[in-house]
Amino acid sequence: MLAAFWERNGAARDVLQLAEMPDPVPAAGEVLVRVAASGVNPSDVKSRALRAPAFPRIIPHSDGAGVITAVGAGVDASRIGSRVWIWNGQWQRAHGTAAQLIALPAEQAVPLPDGTSFEAGACLGIPALTALHGLLTDGGIAGQAVLVHGGAGAVGHYAIQFARLLGARRIITTVSSAAKADVARAAGADVVLNYREDDVAKRIRAIEPAGVERILEVDAAGNAPTNAAAIAHGGMIAAYGSNKPEVPLAFMPHIARGIGWRFYIVYALTAAERARAVGTLQAWMASGLVRHAVAETLPLARIADAHELVEQGRVTGNVVLTL
Question: Which residue of 2, 135, 186, 196 sits 20 to 30 Å from the alpha carbon of 280, by its own alpha carbon?
Answer without folding.
Answer: 186
